């Protein structure tokens, strides 16, 4: 099939490469010329495991093409996916300018029937707006469908190629049959394509992210109580997770959720409710708990040092908002590092993939090291911010020898408190008595 993808970010690029890999002819566009010129040379501007191989293979086999001219997409494709960003406005609502600009340009350029599919996460009613904008700019025949994306950064290819479910909001049989045909190779294991009305499809994405964010804030709030009551949230988590009604996933306490999705999507849903004169008290609390959880580690640090960390050096392990990505959008590392710097501490940081992005944020206010051990040289304390696998089982004798102080603030509970105590560290986790 002839497919177009507008937006070559974490979602658009994965979608374009995966559609191409299942035999489709894909043209992918972005307004960022630098991104497109890298991609044309087979260089992938983001870190996502195995994505570079997939992009290079499909470029070589000429099923995947990149362009900075959106009209090349419009001319080529029968199905056009809009996968541009929907960042938050000041009031928390989703900024739809990129989506609607793309819709206008598609309308201006299209000839013959097109199916336009909104893959970006958008508030309920956005597909109706996209339809109106296109209709105002074309006399051609078209449908607009909603197809929110559920991939997780760090596991994006597996999620896209073998999705738990595919949600499609459609208005008629033509869109339904085109999307069924396109997605057939991705649902061979019988996971469903759920067709529904467009507005419910838009809502499903927000509802899913809001539920996941709620689980995290719920556990974080209970972790803080567990600390006061002297229990270990990690034992509580295991005890809860075996109940199939609860399930094991997304129950890990930590220093708050970040990334480009949960924070903005929770805010956007709360804002949608507000626009309709309603409150979403649970989600307002989810967001509030998350904000304060991001401050919790700095609070522990300051308490430990009697409020004075001037001149103390902190080694930070992990900068990305979660492991296996270079994405630092809304990463808890940002308030943690800013909090330390504001109080006069110094920071040496290491992350396997996110340092180029972190350098844009912190410039020379943080020193970045070539590996996790180098960050420890002369440090008063180690602060674990992101649970990359390679941090889980370090050589503790080496860690101890490199550090000046022997204090660990473990924001992701990757180490065992008793073991740390046995090794001679002063250990602080999250919600661990
Ligand atoms: P991103 O910022 O990584 O990529 C968006 C891309 O769109 C950028 O490269 C930008 O240059 C491009 N763009 C903006 N305006 C354009 C235009 N007029 N024409 C062509 N390109 C344009 O964003 P992302 O993380 O890929 O997210 C895209 C959407 O998918 C968002 O709505 C997001 O909420 C949603 N989503 C993201 C994830 C995720 O894990 N990142 C998961 C599911 C859904």
Task: List the defining traits of the structure above.
433 residues, alpha/beta, N-(1-d-carboxylethyl)-l-norvaline Dehydrogenase, domain 2, Rossmann fold, binds nicotinamide-adenine-dinucleotide
Number of helices: 17
Q: What is the SS-derived class?
A: alpha/beta
CATH class of the largest domain: Alpha Beta
Strand order of the largest sheet: 3-2-1-4-5-6
Identify the overall geometry: globular
Briefly, what is this?
With 433 residues, the protein is an alpha/beta fold. It has helices spanning 10-21, 33-40, 51-60, 70-76, 97-109, 126-137, 156-161, 173-183, 198-228, 233-241, 262-275, 281-293, 296-304, 333-342, 355-362, 396-402, 417-422, and strands at residues 2-6, 25-29, 64-67, 79-82, 114-118, 142-146, 166-169, 193-196, 313-317, 346-350, 367-368, 381-384, 407-410, 426-428.
Describe this structure in words.
The chain is built from 17 helices and 14 strands. It has 433 residues and is α/β, with parallel strands linked by helices. The chain has 3 domains: 2-196, NAD(P)-binding Rossmann-like Domain (Rossmann fold, 3-Layer(aba) Sandwich), CATH 3.40.50.720; 206-293, N-(1-d-carboxylethyl)-l-norvaline Dehydrogenase, domain 2 (Orthogonal Bundle); 296-428, Rossmann fold (3-Layer(aba) Sandwich), CATH 3.40.50.720. The longest helix has 31 residues, at 198-228. The N and C termini lie far apart (57 Å). The model has no long low-confidence stretch (mean pLDDT 97). Nicotinamide-adenine-dinucleotide binds at residues 6-12, 29-32, 35, 70, 83-86, 98, 101-102, 120-121, 149, 151, 153, 260-261.
